[in-house]
Design brief:
The chain is α+β, with helices and mostly antiparallel strands and 299 residues long. It contains eight helices and nine strands. The C terminus is likely disordered.
């Protein structure tokens, strides 16, 4: 699988695990068979766009990020991006337009000259490449993957099992989706803020890490997470961020570690809201003591 397809599969597996849906349940509730879902979730084939939307609906999760991942993966899967790049880089064929024996003078100012067919095709292919490349680049910037440290290379190939690519301290400050830690994580605690945003503390036993994710946010909101060590955070930068899942980077945890998340709304009169959970403890939200929190409030 390509890295783009791998990220899509990771997102789909997380949606399915979060909703607790078996392959048989997916087949019963959608227009796609059990064997089809097995291929989609194991990366054997690219799912239709509608299948991605249906899974988001069943999981009751925003569809913005999964659909953006699908658009990028489909562009690679179908070969549209590669074909456009190849067409744009190919020189004009001599059979289409023989080279002139002498340099041609430039046309006088103010006059037009029709382009040769091959030149026109090259220009059109170039324009297509710019558009496709621009859209793909924009989608990458809008996805949570863009929060990963700059210069971190994507793996050239990913094992079929999609095993995590880091553990413990090696995951500190890195993206849970990019490092395949976001497949089937546990939810330590869930919380809804006063502004209506949703926040969850997530934990991956196989990676030995925790992180926080949020959705239903507003531009300018910020979410931080810590487990007694470094604090990692994410800020909602634009409307696309607000319409999708946004993740903090991971922090190393061990059984018994206390993980704390703090949500700070963009509103000037908004109060910071914090809650915490213990790794291995009950998956229930609780608000940690904080002087900036409204007295008597509970998670």
């Amino acid at each position: 699988m390509t890295p783009e397809h791998t990220r899509l599969v990771a997102a789909l597996r997380e949606l399915r695990a979060g909703a607790g849906l078996s392959l048989a349940a997916l087949a019963e509730r959608t227009a796609y068979s059990k064997s089809s879902w097995e291929r989609y979730l194991n990366g054997k084939s690219l799912p239709p766009r509608l299948a991605v939307r249906e899974l988001c609906r069943l999981a009751d999760e925003p569809e913005g990020r999964p659909l953006a991942l699908w658009e990028i993966a489909e562009s690679r899967w179908s070969g549209r991006a590669v074909a456009a790049s190849t067409s744009a880089s190919a020189p004009p064929s001599p059979a289409d337009e023989p080279p002139p024996p002498h340099p041609e003078p430039s046309p006088p100012a103010g006059t037009g000259r029709p382009l040769g067919r091959s030149r026109l095709l090259v220009l059109l292919a170039s324009a297509y490449t710019v558009i496709v490349g621009g859209v793909a680049a924009l989608l990458f910037l809008l996805l949570p993957d863009s929060e990963a440290p700059k210069g971190e290379p994507l793996p050239a190939s990913v094992p079929f099992s999609l095993a995590p690519l880091c553990h413990g301290a090696a995951c500190e400050g890195r993206d849970p989706m990019r490092l395949i830690c976001g497949i089937g994580p546990d939810t330590l605690a869930a919380y809804r803020t006063a502004t209506g945003a949703h926040v969850e503390l997530r934990h991956s036993e196989k990676c030995g890490t925790s992180w926080a994710r949020t959705w239903g946010t507003e531009i300018g909101d910020r979410l931080d997470v810590t487990a007694g060590g470094p604090t990692h955070g994410v800020r909602i930068g634009n409307a696309d961020d607000a319409a999708a899942f946004m993740y903090t980077e991971m922090t190393e945890v061990n059984p018994g570690s206390t993980v704390r998340a703090c949500f700070r709304p963009t509103a000037a009169d908004g109060e910071r809201e914090c809650f915490e959970a213990r790794v291995g403890g009950a998956a229930a939200a609780s608000r940690a003591p904080s002087p900036s929190l409204p007295p008597g409030s509970r998670g």
